[in-house]
Amino acid sequence: MNNQFMKEKPVFPLLLSMALPMVLSMMVNALYNIIDSFFVAQISEDAITALSLIFPIQNLINAVAIGFGVGLNAVISINLGAQEEKKANQAATQGLLLSAVHGIVFTAGCILIIPTFLGAFTSDASVIDLGIRYCRIAFSFTTIIMFGLAFEKIFQAVGSMKVTMFSMLCGCITNIILDPVLIFGLGPFPKLGIDGAALATGIGQTVTLVIYLVIYLLRPIRVKIHVRDLRPNLPMIGRLYAIGIPAVLNMALPSILISTLNAILAPYSPIYILILGVYYKLQTFLYLPANGIVQGMRPIIGFNYGAGEQSRVRKIYRLVLIMTGSIMLVGMIVCMAIPGTLISLFTDNPETIAAGKTALRIISLGFVVSSISVTSSGALEGIGKGVQSLTISLCRYLVIIVPAAFILSRLIGPTGVWHAFWIAEAGAAVISIIVYRKTASAN
After folding, report:
1. How many other C-beta atoms are found inside a 10 Å radius of the C-beta of residue 105?
2. Which residues contact 268 (CB under 8 A, 6 or more apart)?
3. Which of 290, 338, 389, 422 is most buried, judged by most C-beta within 10 A?
4. φ/ψ of residue 361, rounded to 5
5. Are 146 and 65 in contact (CB under 8 A)?
6. What stretch of H or E contains 434?
């Protein structure tokens, strides 16, 4: 396959062809997250609270898988742009090997720590029991998640976005179908409750990986996985982690943030923890499509950066910024217009719905401006500037929002936590512009 189209095809249609399959995939994935939480909420409010508390750990696992995959994607794309196919093959092979190691370590670690983790945020025995039951099943599929996301980034690096779209769609649709079947015991299936939700998720992830493997074997791509490349190459491993570790930290920061905000909100009422969890379920419906565009951008911007096409790199960045900003504007309008309807998908408690309406309206004030940091961070990862990307994310998820949430919650109560979101997005946007321009001008 000739990948020169990445630097020869007009930028806008190229970006659309790469990004739209990922946007569709991310939209379906977001729909799955919403539907999954909707069905779990039908079990009980304790069940959805347990899922809200577990979310940071699940996000951490995804952070490691996706973040390392970002490093893998960038190394492959840059080497392909520089016509270094042997190095691209080596990166793909060793990336898969390291993904297996990550999966084994996180499976054991997460299952061991989850009882202590849940106990740090609640003393409700029902919530803890439901959380442990869910995690023991869901975390057993961690290695499959790691492999699946590594293959996703390999296919994306060579421009095979339709393959990743198809694989993700099949996994998500499988999950959506199995959720009510396994949770409520439809037809010949037993009623498994929250265990069924975890099993449905794991089966969906397995379907995605199987499809990647079948397509790789039947329709070879430009990047090849070779047994001879399994021998550790320290410079290559160092390169993968040099980009991958900052990307992992980028992805892991929301988990740290959610756990920190849960600790700030816990003294007020459990409903605020539930609202925060519901918000993060809802916001995936916006940020996943935006990230779909960013994922479509990464291999293109990395390839052109490796090929020395700086003018195309700048044009790609500007177009992606406009596209992500448009998505976030739609999200802000929806959250301002029907916040109660959105919250009521997950609870019928009038007090929770009322507090949730206030939260969504305040948080959504920062949606549009957040597109600057999302785009800048993704572009920097695509060209291999992981540390600069991490700087932006640290400001967005830790340095600004945590102190602001703590101080404002002491001044005006839990509503102050919601105000900290838009304050952090505005501050991170300014920093993003400075960091990206400084990095771009240096190259």
Report:
1. 14
2. 413, 414
3. 389
4. -65, -40
5. yes
6. helix 415-441
Distances (CA, A) of 31 to 22, 38, 244, 257, 288: 14, 10, 28, 23, 10
The label of the residue with tokens 């779990």 reads: 40
Please report, for residues 77, 126, 158, the alpha-carbon distance to residue 303 in angstroms, rounded to integers and kept in the order given: 5, 51, 9
Kind plus residue range of the DSSP H or E element containing 17: helix 11-43
105 vs 22: CA distance, rounded Å = 29
Specify whether the CB–CB gap between 18 and 300 falls below 8 A: yes
pLDDT-derived band at 30, boundaries 50, 70, 90: low
- Max distance between CA atoms of the chain, in angstroms, equals 63
Q: CA-to-CA distance for 236 and 257, rounded, in angstroms?
A: 32
Read out DSSP for 378-392?
HHHHHTT-HHHHHHH
Backbone angles phi, psi at 289, to 5 degrees: -60, -40
Q: 187-194 long-range CB contacts below 8 Å, 24 or more apart?
A: 193/43, 193/47, 194/40, 194/43, 194/47, 194/50, 194/130, 194/133, 194/134
Cα dihedral: 290, 296, 301, 303 (round 10): 160
For the chain, the average pLDDT equals 87
Burial of residue 324, with CB atoms counted within 10 A of its CB: 0-12 exposed, 13-18 middle, 19 or more buried: buried
In this structure, which amino acid lies at residue 347? T
CA torsion sign, 38 to 28 to 19 to 214? Answer: positive
What separation in angstroms does the CA of 407 have from each of 9, 355, 396, 413? 50, 20, 17, 9
Distance CA 186, CA 335 (A): 34
The gap from C-alpha 346 to its chain's centroid, in whole angstroms, comes to 21
Supply the DSSP symbol for 345. T
293-333: pLDDT as tens digits: 887 888 888 888 877 788 888 889 999 999 999 999 999 99
DSSP-assigned letters across all residues of 170-216: HHHHHHHHHHHHHHHT-TTS---THHHHHHHHHHHHHHHHHHHHHHH
pLDDT tens readout for residues 91-145: 999 999 999 999 999 999 988 999 998 888 888 888 899 889 998 998 999 999 9
